[in-house]
Amino acid sequence: MRLLTTLLLLLLLRSAEPRRGPRSGTERGGGGRVRGRGRAGVTRRQIQGCKEYMEAGEKYLDCQDRQLTTVMQDWPKDIHHLLLARNKIQVLRDNMFSQFTQLKSLDLQQNDISMVEDGAFSGLSQLTTLLLQHNSLKTASEEILLPLPRLTYLRLYDNPWSCRCSLDSLIRKLQVPSNRNLGNYAKCAEPHSLSGQKLKKVNVDSLCEGDNQVDRRPGDREGGDRRPPPFKPVKSEATSMCHTYMFPKPLLDCSKKDLNHIPSDLPSDIVKMDLSSNSVKHLRPKQFLLSKDLKLLNLSSNSLHRIDTAAFAGLLYLRELDLSNNSLHYFQYGVLEDLYFLRKLSLANNPWICDYNIHYLMYWLKHHPGVAFTGLICAEPQEFRGWRVEDYVKTYNGECPKDRQTGGVDTGQGGQGGSDNEAQEVVVETSNGQVLPRPLKEKKLNRFEIIRLS
């Protein structure tokens, strides 16, 4: 029994020694290396699983999906972008972010925020982007925006806003013409008479007048239940299923979301949109009409087999379009006519069929020489498989030559054994003995025909 007790004491003493070592070293100062390690350990504990990284010379702190209910005061204070989406924050208290004086963007979407105190954003004089969509906000005042002189983007949609007198000052702020990107798409949830109206369009003068009136729906009986039905926000697919990032450029990331169609209500201020790796089969007209600022659209690795005319209507500034890894055979006439400033078109790994229907695509590319394109290779028919589409089109559109002549000289008068109207195919034999058409020379006009009309 004594032996067992002795062994247990020895084990306890050994397990306690490593904990004492670093602590005593820290107290002694221990040199630069020991202090550096100590600070690194503190940073890891402070961030609590958040990811700190640099991009384009600016520091990001990504604390999304961490079940956080507040902001930790010992987080790094020199960050430029703080990502707090999809947490459990309910109230934004005064001076909650005041230590982050260099902050440029603050992402608080998809929390449970129901209250914002007037001084919540004090100290954020450099903030340009504030995301508060997908929360439980019913009211707020203009006071919350006063510490934000540089605010350019403010998102408030998918909140159950109560359009009453208490919201008067905020709505007036949003409706100032110069604030064109503040509060877009946010809508009233109550009273019933204003339900569904955008805050940007509400008649502000009527908000306080109606506060003393009973909100009653048509058909309600006297003394009946006059309360409006509970608000159930209808979430846009684009914002509820996809992730929105504002820095370094506004990006809507909808990749790998099992989408079989383009989401509705696409944001209008997005510059990049990633819809890759889904199951979209058909692009219908005007599905991107509101995304006028879009410069990059990635539709790769879907199941696209049809793109309607006007599918890209409105994408005046689109620079890059990725349609690789789909099931496209050709483009219908007019599909590309809205892409005036396109510079890069990715078309690889599509089963392009080299027949008459492919000519529109080559015709458009020929008249837009500034567009760099890749992956335009014939998959069908068998005799043209592996050919570049442009080589096939040259063969198809080439002028039928005159009969062969000795020396290969074409006099323009027709040769022996043939006339101008007789066609003869020029062929080339490949290394495996297969005979394929060869691209023909472009037609050259060398005479005029004058027709006299009587």
TrEMBL record:
Coiled coil (UniProt feature): none
Annotated region described as Disordered, given as residue ranges: 19-38, 209-236, 403-422
Biased composition (Basic and acidic residues): 213-228
Stretches assigned to the LRRCT domain: 159-209, 350-401
Record keywords: Leucine-rich repeat, Repeat, Signal
Cross-referenced Pfam families: LRR_8
Official protein name in the record: Leucine-rich repeat-containing protein 17-like
